[in-house]
Structures are given as C-alpha cells and as structure tokens.
C-alpha cells in the first residue's frame, strides 16, 4: 500500500505550562492491513449501499487510505491555510477544518492526514490570536467561508474540488464556528463537530459577534447530516473546558431540521482527546479516565466513516457510525 507522506511544522501557542504526555499515534504501521476483498464483506447498507463492487478492494475507515498525501501552505485574506492534498485522480470532496481555541491545524495532523488519505482534500484555517485578543466567532466564520471561496475558484485546487461535496469539521470553539459556517453557506453538505462549545469565554455573554448557535438561525436551520461527538468529563469544575450549559448536547438538541443527526458520547474522554496533539493548551483541561490513544483512534475512525458516508454516500460506513463497529464505550443518540 502507498504510505502517507507529509511533513508537519508543529505550531504551539504558549498559553499554559505543561501539556498532555500522550503523543498522537502513528497509524502508518497498520496501513498494510487496510485492504480486504470487497466480496468477503456483508452488505451493511442494504439495496442502497454504496461501495466497491465484488472483487474490488475495500478500505475500512480505521486505517490509512490508499492515497499518498502532500501538504501545501497558503494565505487567504491574511489567514494561514494548510491543505492536505490526496494523490487521487478526478474531483475530490472538500473538508474544511477549524481548530479549537488556542490550537492550530497542526494539532489535528494525524486525523487530517488520515482523512486526506481516504481521498478528501482537507483544508485547515488558522485563526491566530492570543488569550486576550483574537478573531471573533463571526470573523472566524468569515475566514472559513473565504477559504471555501478560494478553494473553489483559485489555483491550485479549483479544478480538483467537487463543489457538491463539502463538509466542515470543527473542534471546541471550531465546532461552534462550524455550525455558523454551515448555517451561513449552503454549499456545505455535512458537518462533523468534535466536542463543540457554544460559549464566548468566562463571564462573557452572547453577542452579535459571539452568537448563541442553538437558535433557529444556526443549528436549527441545518438541513444537512450532522455528527456531534462529545464528553462529560470536562463539563464541570473551575473554568471547565466544555461547560455543561454550553457543551455538545446543547447543540445536538437544537438540530431540529437535520435529516441525519447523531450524538456520540465518549465515556472516558476529555475535551482535548478530540485533538491529536493537545499542545500546551491541553494542560488546562483535566485528563479523562479513558485511554487517550485509543479514544483518538476511535475519533479518527468515526470521522473518516462520517465523511465517506455523507460526502460519498458509502452506506458501508454505517457499522462504524450506528452499528456493530461503534466502540462499546461510546453511547449514541440518533438514528
């Protein structure tokens, strides 16, 4: 199998001392086990299942995909953009990646590379800023939309992106921004939110620049598939990273128009388990009781499965989302 080849310059924003000792796992060692004969698989999706014909190879979502990945850097309206480009022919779906507060695209390197290796163009938008100054939610939304415009209209990707297959993937504050992007731009066909936080910071109220996304104009307007992953181990305590009143369940409960909305709760996870490398910012979120490496691998697998299911109509991904392959320590609400 072709190996993923990509180099990353780790961007660490010095906002706290210490960090998480758990480094992002290297999944390349399992890539050789990725290919199985499709004729040996049961039809997970019934008559409407989409996937390879018998005799073709089927790559499950829990290993690297068949495409080599290259990284390209750019600047769009002053924001740093990182693109992970699969070595695939023809048009490919686009995934817009929005990092969490005080994090960067590089903190999601392993997950982004895994997704790209399955044939998706992954584009991360870095916001910059510090603890006391930085872009507002609205400014971050506008930066992601500007990057979407760039990817569809400008070199080098204008001829590579399938404009009908676009998803937004966001973590923490980036998950909230992802809701705002999907509500504002109907080109987005699916949204995957990793422990999203619908907040504005300690002691700050909702405002025009930092809206409550549980309203009808935001989460309530999303008539697209939405997956929401979350945890409850960082929902209480002193300055919790994912406060209970603003956590993933508040956003999931507001998805009244979505034709496919699922929330997965990872029992042992903490807020930073949804990033591959929590960096120095990770020290402010207490570690959950679960195995960080295992949880991150599960998140990565389910992210690939979600995107393949909802951007490429692969019903064979259903077992990893709503079936027998969902981890036993992950509970599900939804279909």
How much of the sequence lies in strands comes to 15-25%
Quick one: overall form?
Answer: globular
The whole-angstrom Rg is 18 Å
Distance between the termini: 35 Å
Helix content: 10-25%
Number of domains: 1
Q: By CATH's scheme, which homologous superfamily applies?
A: Alpha/Beta hydrolase fold, catalytic domain
| Total number of beta strands | 11
Strand order of the largest sheet: 3-4-6-5-7-8-9-10-11
Low-confidence stretches: 1-55
Structural class label:
alpha/beta
Q: Order of SSEs, N→C?
A: EEEEEHEHEHEEHEHHE
Q: Mean pLDDT, nearest integer?
A: 86
Q: What is the CATH-assigned architecture?
A: 3-Layer(aba) Sandwich
Which class in CATH terms?
Alpha Beta
> In CATH terms, what is the fold-level topology?
Rossmann fold
How is the biggest beta sheet arranged?
9 strands, mixed
Number of helices: 6
Question: Would you summarize the structure shown here?
Answer:
Helix content is 21%, strand content 19%. It is built from 6 helices and 11 strands. The protein has a 9-stranded mixed sheet with strand order 3-4-6-5-7-8-9-10-11, with helices on both faces.
């Amino acid at each position: 199998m072709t190996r993923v080849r990509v180099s990353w310059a780790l961007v660490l924003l010095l906002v706290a001392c210490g960090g998480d000792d758990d480094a992002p796992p290297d999944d390349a060692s399992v890539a050789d086990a990725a290919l199985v004969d499709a004729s040996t698989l049961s039809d997970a999706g019934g008559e409407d299942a989409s996937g390879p014909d018998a005799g073709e190879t089927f790559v499950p979502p829990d290993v690297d995909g068949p495409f080599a990945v290259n990284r390209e850097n750019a600047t769009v309206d002053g924001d740093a953009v990182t693109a992970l480009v699969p070595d695939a022919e023809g048009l490919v779906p686009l995934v817009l990646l929005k990092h969490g507060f005080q994090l960067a695209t590089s903190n999601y390197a392993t997950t982004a590379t895994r997704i790209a290796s399955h044939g998706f163009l992954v584009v991360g938008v870095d916001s910059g800023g510090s603890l006391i100054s930085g872009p507002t939610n609205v400014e971050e939304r506008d930066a992601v939309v500007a990057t979407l415009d760039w990817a569809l209209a400008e070199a080098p990707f204008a001829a590579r992106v399938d404009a009908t297959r676009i998803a937004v993937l966001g973590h923490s504050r980036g998950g909230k921004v992802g809701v705002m992007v999907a509500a504002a731009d109907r080109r987005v066909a699916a949204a995957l939110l990793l422990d999203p936080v619908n907040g504005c910071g300690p002691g700050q109220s909702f405002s025009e620049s930092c809206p409550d996304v549980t309203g009808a104009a935001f989460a309530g307007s999303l008539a697209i598939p939405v997956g929401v992953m979350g945890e409850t181990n960082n929902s209480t305590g002193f300055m919790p990273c994912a406060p209970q009143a603003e956590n993933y369940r508040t956003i999931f409960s507001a998805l009244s128009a979505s034709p496919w909305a699922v929330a997965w709760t990872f029992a042992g996870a903490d807020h930073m388990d949804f990033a591959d490398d929590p960096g120095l910012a990770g020290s402010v979120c207490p570690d959950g009781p679960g195995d960080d490496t295992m949880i991150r691998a599960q998140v990565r697998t389910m992210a690939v499965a979600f995107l393949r299911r909802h951007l490429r109509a692969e019903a064979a991904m259903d077992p990893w989302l709503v079936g027998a392959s969902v981890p036993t320590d992950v509970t599900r609400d939804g279909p």
